[in-house]
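Anyone have C-alpha cells for EAL domain-containing protein? Sequence:
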Amino acid sequence: MLRTIKTPIAILLVSAVLITSALVMWLTVIEHEKLYTASVKKDLNALTANLAIDLTPELLKRRPDKDRIKKELTNLASYQHILGARVYDNARGLIYSQPALSSSIFNLAKERQFDRLLTQPSGSYRVGDELIAINRISDNGVPLGYVVIINDVETPVSDSWQTLLLHVLPFVIVATLLTIAITLFLLNRWLSPLSRLSAFTHQLSFTKDYTQRFDTSSANEVGQLAFHVNTLLDAIEAELTINQEQNQTLVEQQQTMTRLANFDSLTGLPNRQFVMDNLRLELARSRRLEKDIALLFFDLDGFKGINDSLGHEIGDLILIDVADRVTTMLRDGDLVARLGGDEFIIVPDRDVTELSLKNLATRVIDAFAEPFHFRGLALTVGVSIGIAKASDANFELSQLMSNADLAMYRSKAKGRGIYTIFTHEMVESHKRKLSIANSIDQGISQDEFVLYYQPKVARDGKLVGFEALIRWQHPEFGMINPAEFIPIAEQSGKISAITRWVIERVSIELPLLQSVFEDKFRVAVNLSGHDLRHSGLFDLIYSIFTQQQVNPEYIEFEVTESAYLENFAFANKFFRRLSNMGCAIALDDFGTGYSSLSYLTQISIDTLKIDRQFVRELGTSDRSRLVTNSIIDLAKRLSLTICAEGIEHVSQWEYLLEHGCDHVQGYLFSKPIPLEEVANLPARFSFTDSASRHVSN
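Reply: yep, here.
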C-alpha cells in the first residue's frame, strides 16, 4: 500500500506525459504520411496528364509506335519511386508495359483490381503499398486510351517518418523528460505543505499540544486546509480551556462538597457524618483488637437563652469560640466534632481509663470557666458532659451515642456544669422516662392527672390564693411528682397539652373554690418556657375562659425568670395582653436566674416570688438573708407584691413578716392538697401556739 499521495500522483502525471507525447508523435507521423501521400498524388496526376498529352499523337495512329511509347515512358526512370507504367488503348487493351516492372509488381489479384481501376475516373488510387495514377488519353474529347503510372508509397513514407523521428524524437524525449521533471518538481512543491501538514497533525496526535499552529503562506486548497486545521485547533484549545476551567470548578466544588459533607461550615470541626463514619470504623477495629474506646458528649448550658435573647450572630460567635477552646486543650490525635446546634463530641485517641476520662472532662469544664466576651458583654456558658465507653454498648454505635446522651442529660439533671460517666442503671431510668413520655397523651385522655392546691397566705394569716400543682396517678408507676414528668413533657414536646389541661381544669374547678371562699383570691397557674414559644397560647386561654365563664381577676400566671427572659420579646407581649385582660403575673424563682435588674423595668408583672432556696437558708446564711432583703426592698420600690415560698418554720415566717414580705406559702400552712380537702382549710391562719399545733396536726 502506498504511504504517500505523491507516488500515485507522480506515476499518473508521468504516464500522462508519456502517453501524450507518444500520441502526439503518432498523430504527427499519420499526418505527415497523409500530407506526403497527397503531395505524391498531386505530382503523379500532373505527370500522367503530361504523359497523356505526349502519347496522344501515337495513339491517333492506327498502329502506335511502341518504341516511341517506350521512349516516352523511359523518361520516368528519373523518378525515384515510380515502379512502372502502362499504356492501354480505348478498349483497355495493353499497348505497352515495362516488362520487368510488370512481372514484379502485379500478381493475379492485383491485375483484377487494376482492371477495375481503369473503369474509374482519372486520378490517383491507393492499392496496397502502391499509388496508381490513371489518366485518359483523348483527342478533342474522343477517348483514345489510358496511361497508368505505378508509384511506391510505403517506402518513401517509411523513410520520411523515420527521418522525421530521427530528427524530432530526441527533442521530444528531452521535452518529455523536462516536462516530467518540471511536473515532479511542481508536484513536490505543491504537495510539500500537505506533507508538512500531515506530519504536523501526526505529531499533534502524540504531543496533544493544541497550542501549536501550522504555518503556511499558500493560498490554494492546502493553504485553506491548513487554515481550517488551525481554526479547528483554535476551537479545540478554547474547548480545552473551558473544560480545564470547568474541571477546576468541579474539583473545587467537589472539595467544597467534601468539606460540607465532612466538616461543619461554622466551626470548621468535623461534623456528625464524618465522626459517625470514623466511629463505625474505630468500633469495628476495637472489637477485633479487643480494645476499648470512649467518647465525651456535651452541650452548652444556657446557650439557648443567649441565642434567643442576643441573637444567632452572638450564638454563632460563641460556637466558634467553643470549638477553639476545646481544640486547643486537647491532645494530638483526640477528635472533637460538632454534632449540630450546641452539641459536641470528643473521642480520645489514647488512654480511656476512668481516671484519664475524668481528667479530660475536668479540663473541658475548666475551659469554660472564663466568660466569653462579645461586644462589651461577658457571657458565661457552661457545659454538661456525658461519658460512655464502647464496651458498655457492645461496640454498637447507636447504643454508644445513646449511652453518652443519657449520661449528659444526667449531668444536666444534677445541676449542670459537671460530667457523668454512664452506668447501666441509667438505661432503666431512660426506659422509665420513655414510658412516661409515651403515656402522657393517654394520661390526659384517661383523666389520670389531678390538681392539688397549695394555699397562699397574706401577712395577717388570711388565705389570699392558691397555686395549682399537677399530680399524675400513673397506672404503672403510681403517683409521679411533677418534678419528674414535667421536664420529660418539655423534652418530648407534650408540655403544651399538659398546660392546656391545667388551665381547663382550673377553669372548671374555680367555681367550687369560689363557693368555699367568699373573699376574693387568685389561683396561680404555672407556665413553662416551652409554653411561651406557643404563638396561640393567648387565644387558647381566652377561648377557655370564655367557654367556662372565668373571671380573669381570679387567675394568676406564674413563669420562671429564666423562661421569661429566654422568650423575652414574645413573653413581654403575651403577659401584657394577659394583664390587660385582668390576670395577674408572677415572676417565680427570682434571683436564681439571670438576676439582671434592668429587665424589671421592661416587663409586665405584679408579683416577685422569692425562691425556696433563699428561704431555707434564712437562719444559716447571711448571704441568703441579704439577697432576700434586697429582693423585698426592690419589689417595694417597684410597687410589686412579694411572695416567698417554701415556708416550713414559724421563724422563717416571722423574719419575712418583719422585713415586709406580702404573701407566703409552704408546709407551715399546708402541703398541696386535692380539691375535696380545700374546704377544710381555715380562712385565716393564726400563729399562736395553739394555731401552730393546729397546723402541725
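The chain has 23 helices and 22 strands.
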